[in-house]
């Protein structure tokens, strides 16, 4: 894990962003941006409505406390959605020469609110890093949470090119990939890939509340994967979902229709076409998962090799080392531990052409192969 408080390892002039970066909101995203920029030697000035949160972020090394003498080049607003527009307006008026961006997960509502107020938005560019953790606050911040993640930038025809370059430089400095979208396209997209998945995970996990302990003891990695984000903060998600209600409802209505179709088929499985309806649902899910970009944005198909790994120190490192000796590149990895078992299952994703080489080579070296995709 990256030590976000470590001494910066890159020279100051390696950063694309210059001058002081003012971050308003020292929670998870704000502090994480601070850590990433501090690692490049950037001067980061922090402000937060909570004095204790601000002191904690400063103590952990996300930046220094902002002062009235600061003259920021860039301002990053990282506050809850229900006050995002208010803070953007305040920062634009207070620092008219600075570029202001925000990292709220909804882009259209704050923009419309600012336009209705007649705020000069020349130097405002909405943005959103698609990154985060289930836990929030400055104590959970990490410098590396943006690495390889998309960072949406919502420009318009009035955006000065120099301002756009500053926001894109911020994204690049923290390791993210800038992607330009309109606010409306962004909100529809995150409704599908972020907001509705949060609701689905929460609804499924909610079924566990009154479930028998015997049932929950059977839970494997699949159900843990599908409900991981259900641990998110309700207070924040109420604001996010309220701000993006229309696109979320559109996806929920389509999902509800599909659920009804499957439920009707399972109520009468002997009805002609019922089994096909279920099969089509599973197959459509296969097709959808296949479209999700993986490493380096690839959408290519990978095969899985599941290896049994003893629960002792160094075994996972040895597995990776021997895969390297076999010239097998690990495209992805998932670990599963069964309660009470003295071993784990390492699901290794590799390109199809490497499956046989990986299986044969690992078995020759004494590894037990639990399964492969084609089993």
UniProtKB/TrEMBL annotation:
<keyword id="KW-0560">Oxidoreductase</keyword>
<dbReference type="InterPro" id="IPR008927">
    <property type="entry name" value="6-PGluconate_DH-like_C_sf"/>
</dbReference>
<dbReference type="Pfam" id="PF02153">
    <property type="entry name" value="PDH_N"/>
</dbReference>
<dbReference type="InterPro" id="IPR046825">
    <property type="entry name" value="PDH_C"/>
</dbReference>
<dbReference type="InterPro" id="IPR036291">
    <property type="entry name" value="NAD(P)-bd_dom_sf"/>
</dbReference>
<dbReference type="InterPro" id="IPR050812">
    <property type="entry name" value="Preph/Arog_dehydrog"/>
</dbReference>
<feature type="domain" description="Prephenate/arogenate dehydrogenase">
    <location>
        <begin position="19"/>
        <end position="296"/>
    </location>
</feature>
<protein>
    <submittedName>
        <fullName>Prephenate dehydrogenase</fullName>
        <ecNumber>1.3.1.12</ecNumber>
    </submittedName>
</protein>
<dbReference type="Pfam" id="PF20463">
    <property type="entry name" value="PDH_C"/>
</dbReference>
<dbReference type="InterPro" id="IPR046826">
    <property type="entry name" value="PDH_N"/>
</dbReference>
<comment type="similarity">
    <text>Belongs to the prephenate/arogenate dehydrogenase family.</text>
</comment>
<dbReference type="InterPro" id="IPR003099">
    <property type="entry name" value="Prephen_DH"/>
</dbReference>
<dbReference type="GO" id="GO:0008977">
    <property type="term" value="F:prephenate dehydrogenase (NAD+) activity"/>
</dbReference>
